[in-house]
Amino acid sequence: MSPKRKMLMLTKSEYGQANIFLATCHALMGTDPDVEIHLASFAPIRTAVTAASEAGIKAHPNASSIEFHETRGTHYFKALLSPELPNNAHCLTNHRPGSMPYTGLEMVENCNEIRRIIEEVEPDLTLVDDMFIPELTMARHMRIKWMILSPNTLKDLALPQQPRAAFFWKYPCVGTALPFPIPWHLIPINVLYVFFLIFFMIFNSHARRARAYVTEKTGAMVFDQQEFSNPQPTLKMLMAISPEFDFPVDLKPENIIHCGPIMRPVPAVEEVDPKLHTWLARGPTVFINLGTLSWTTEDQAVEMAQAIRLLITGWREKNRDRRLQVLWKLKQTTDGHVDYDVYNKGCRLEIILGSEFDNDTTGNIICSVNHGGANSFWEALWTGVPQVVLPVWADTYDFAQRAEYLGIGKWVSPNTAPRYRAKELGDALTQVVIGHNARKVQLKSNELAKQRLQLGEGRDVAARHIVENI
Question: Could you tell me which CATH number the domain at 269-435 has?
Fold first, then answer.
């Protein structure tokens, strides 16, 4: 019997990137049970990998479990330290640590760890996270057979290759609040923002020192985000998006493969949390989840609560027969600890400790308030739920713009992001839930959800491409 082919997945431990790797692992276990799957990342993701492996074995008993390899080093979020990104040209300076958050020493430690894991596994094919620089660097340096798996969009990786310098004038620069399409009178300021971005990326002394240190100590040339500004025709990239849900582009590189949204197969809520299912079944629900890497300060929690009150008041004035309720995933600190008391501030709250779930079979979630992360955006689109987007990172502005462009939601805070005020948030919630265009937004959301279903599961598409290339 010939030995099993080995598939190695290299990803960050942050769920925004890691979820599509876990989803693809599940699909790969069903597509070809004879593929041996290895996943390397940092310790925080170990439990999720174990859960994904157990779920995969339950669904596909003939498959092998996922073997986890812990990467000992500095993970992305620890290096980044979560800087706030104000909505002006200054936000572009903060894009620098985001694109190269590591010191030279941290980069070398991470690169050596990736080298160790690759040498131990000896994979037939390696799938690499496009945002984790040490993995990109070592995959290229070691000349292994590799591909990219990315939750990002065609615009993110194909933009520099678009004709007529569209990078400057057609698409909003990252981290800006400019709309899409960009009005003629705002094109000059967008061009200026892009020049700022290029300047900061090229003359980033921190990144240059880190690159030089890595080359000196390992002999490897760093593969960072600047590399994507040049065509990579021989490097296949699996993207978790379909052109139907993205900004239009004129040139679609052949090496970029559109898989469609890649979602983890998580059980329906009534299977994993009957109490939460019963609570959701009581009536229409607004679901607020601003991501795993962001937290809500007390002043912003007050703004959110006041906005919710505005929505509920408007709901009652519309003489709605059913009671409106809000499911709010309130994260007060980076480590999940309680930082301020919300129970003695006039709030009427119930504690609902919900499990991770995929399908709200009650159909009662009528609006998703999210931070514009790829997973949150696709989850709402997947279920046909209108969105209200509060972007908190420079790269999440893109999905806020996309929600408005597709007609499935509202960007709350283009003038104040990443912060928000009760009045503007309350107005956006009112527009999406009970406003004059609420029905139109709901119908469009349902239409795109049906279209996504017809295109098939993105994780299965990705798995088929992997099997074909391994």
Answer: 3.40.50.2000
